């Protein structure tokens, strides 16, 4: 039972780290004049993408794990480290002003872009044999909630918080990647 609770805690922390992108984008989108119905829709779409992308990653990770074993585990740890470093790096870059609006194809592009890193993490989780349904529930629910929080807070606070939240998310993924690789040393 404690192993299951430990897995839930680990997945929740990872999902929160991945959801920092959704939160950051939500802060930016929150600067638009959005109705509550649109905020609800945006959160659901981003949450759905945070289910689809890790599912694809998990399926690919299980395939790799079955065929490449320990090498796949090592690659999974490296992917988390690279993803964490990339998130930290991008948080310090100047953000370009986007002409894309959070509707239609623009919303799908936003959702895809903030959930792309979930594919990489899903790949790692598939390699390590994480419980798929548990991963998808936690990732989807947290991404949806973080997006809603970002959208609602975006109306009230400045965009500088988004930069720091992405750096925090990257740091968490970096730490998990180092932890996974440390099992090989």
TrEMBL record:
Which topology term describes how it sits in the membrane? Multi-pass membrane protein
Task: Give yes or no: UniProt keyword Ion transport.
Answer: yes
TM helices/strands, residue ranges: 6-27, 39-59, 71-92, 104-128, 134-154, 161-181
Which Pfam families does its entry note? Answer: Mntp
- Organism, as annotated: Neobacillus paridis
InterPro entries given in the database record: Mntp/YtaF, Put_MntP
* Main function: Probably functions as a manganese efflux pump.
Transmembrane helix listed as a keyword: yes
Protein family according to the UniProt entry: Belongs to the MntP (TC 9.B.29) family.
Protein known as = Putative manganese efflux pump MntP
The highest taxon in the source lineage is Bacteria
Q: List keywords of the entry alphabetically.
A: Cell membrane, Ion transport, Manganese, Membrane, Transmembrane, Transmembrane helix, Transport
Location comes to:
Cell membrane
The UniProt entry lists the main location of this chain as membrane
């Amino acid at each position: 039972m404690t192993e299951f609770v430990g897995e839930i805690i680990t997945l929740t922390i990872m999902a929160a780290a991945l959801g920092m992108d959704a939160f950051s984008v939500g802060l930016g989108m929150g600067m638009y004049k959005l109705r509550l119905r649109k905020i609800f829709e945006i959160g659901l779409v981003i949450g759905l993408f945070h289910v689809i992308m890790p599912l694809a990653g998990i399926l690919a990770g299980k395939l790799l794990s079955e065929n490449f074993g320990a090498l796949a585990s090592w690659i999974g740890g490296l992917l988390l480290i690279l993803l964490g470093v990339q998130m930290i790096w991008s948080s310090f870059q100047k953000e370009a002003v986007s002409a894309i609006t959070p509707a239609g194809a623009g919303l799908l592009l936003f959702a895809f872009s903030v959930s792309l890193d979930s594919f990489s993490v899903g790949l790692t989780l598939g390699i390590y044999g994480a419980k798929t349904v548990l991963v998808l529930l936690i990732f989807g629910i947290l991404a949806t909630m973080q997006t809603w929080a970002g959208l609602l807070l975006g109306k009230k606070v400045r965009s500088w918080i988004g930069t720091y939240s992405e750096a925090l998310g990257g740091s968490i993924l970096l730490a998990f990647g180092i932890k996974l690789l440390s099992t090989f040393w």
